């Protein structure tokens, strides 16, 4: 018997970053939107914990205990006094180290898959607690849809969405390390007054109304200058998407994936084709949001 869980990637439609706290973390106002790019994690009984991965980016995924899927299985097993005797296979379609929370997605998916396989019957609140222990972005991967994350991003408030948004994602060569992007943010912010991060009312209203044009005007990523500083070539990708008719363009999370909001599915296809032809990215994919969170298939 095995259990497969499908889990979405995310884009941050607002990522407001506060000054570095004494503990090194940053307070965030983080509006997450789940998008229809998915990983699937399959849990099968095995003699010991084992991780395998398939997909175009599989070579960049660690197969040891640092994999968030492995850590999720270990945390759940420890809590219920079990041994994590499970083979977790990750069918990976979310770009690795792309600022789309792929590792977090696999953590949430593995947790749900092991919970179902072992019949632990953990409550939703307990699963969310384990997710928060795994990482700031992991609870959202479980919940999906749209949500505001505050604190380090892990305190979630679900948000209403009034329609479907159309996206194009341009994947860059190589990844960007999230901690390195935050360090660059701190370097660029040194000596400036960093405002306290707050959710944008205009953005929440655009999401609730399902209004793509209004959302385009409200998209904001405070990490974008830092990502562009580390990867100046991303500016050409952003320009190529805007030139092809995107309503708005931004770096996804800590990058280097770039996200383009399109007016409709046809426009999204055209933008994806132009981005590919521009030679400024490795690949371009269309997707829609919101998407449901981690789901047992
Ligand atoms: P975020 O958007 O949450 O900052 P990301 O999308 O930029 O994350 P991930 O794909 O989650 O980045 O990978 C970041 C690093 O985490 C990888 O370089 C890899 O070493 C490690 N990692 C751990 N588990 C996984 C996993 N299941 N899939 C991919 N990377 C993983």
How would you sum up this structure, described in words?
The structure is a single chain. The chain is α+β, with helices and mostly antiparallel strands and 297 residues long. The chain has 2 domains: 3-159, Ribosomal Protein S5, domain 2; 165-289, GHMP kinase, C-terminal domain (Alpha-Beta Plaits), CATH 3.30.70.890. The protein is built from 10 helices and 12 strands. It has helices at 68-79, 102-118, 124-134, 138-143, 178-189, 201-209, 212-218, 224-230, 234-243, 265-278; strands at residues 3-20, 26-45, 50-54, 86-91, 146-150, 155-158, 165-171, 220-221, 248-251, 258-262, 283-289, 295-296. Strands 1, 2, 3, 4, 5, 6, 8 and 12 form an 8-stranded mixed β-sheet that branches. It has a 4-stranded antiparallel β-sheet with strand order 9-10-7-11, with helices on both faces. Helix 1 packs parallel to helix 2. The longest helix is centred in the middle third of the chain and has 17 residues, at 102-118. The chain is globular and about 55 Å long. 52% of the residues are buried. The model has no long low-confidence stretch (mean pLDDT 96). It binds adenosine-5'-triphosphate (ATP). Adenosine-5'-triphosphate binds at residues 61-62, 66-69, 90, 96-104, 106, 137, 175, 178, 253-254.
């Amino acid at each position: 018997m095995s259990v497969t869980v499908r889990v979405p990637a995310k884009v941050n439609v607002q990522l407001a970053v506060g000054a570095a706290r004494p503990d090194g973390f940053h307070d965030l106002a983080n509006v997450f939107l789940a998008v229809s790019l998915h990983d699937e994690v399959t849990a099968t009984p095995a003699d010991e914990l084992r991780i395998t991965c398939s997909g175009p980016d599989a070579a960049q995924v660690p197969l040891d205990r640092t994999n968030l899927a492995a850590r999720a299985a270990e945390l759940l097993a420890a809590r219920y006094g079990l041994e994590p005797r499970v083979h977790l296979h990750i069918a990976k379609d979310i770009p690795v180290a792309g600022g789309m929370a792929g590792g977090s997605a696999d953590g949430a998916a593995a947790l749900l898959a092991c919970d179902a396989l072992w019949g632990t019957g953990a409550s939703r609140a307990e699963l969310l607690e384990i997710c928060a222990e795994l990482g700031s972005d992991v609870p959202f991967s479980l919940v999906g849809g749209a949500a505001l994350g505050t604190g380090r991003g892990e305190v979630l408030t679900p948000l209403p969405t009034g329609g479907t948004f159309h996206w194009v994602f341009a994947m860059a060569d190589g990844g960007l390390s999230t901690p390195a992007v935050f360090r660059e943010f701190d370097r660029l912010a040194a000596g400036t007054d960093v405002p306290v991060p707050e959710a944008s009312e205009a953005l929440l209203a655009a999401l609730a109304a399902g209004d793509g044009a209004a959302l385009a005007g409200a998209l904001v990523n405070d990490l974008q200058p830092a990502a562009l500083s580390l990867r100046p070539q991303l500016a050409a990708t952003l320009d190529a998407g805007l030139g092809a008719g995107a309503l708005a363009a931004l770096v996804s999370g800590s990058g280097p994936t770039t996200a383009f909001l399109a007016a409709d599915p046809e426009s999204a296809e055209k933008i994806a084709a132009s981005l590919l032809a521009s030679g400024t990215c490795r690949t371009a994919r269309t997707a829609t949001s919101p998407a449901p969170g981690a789901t047992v298939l």
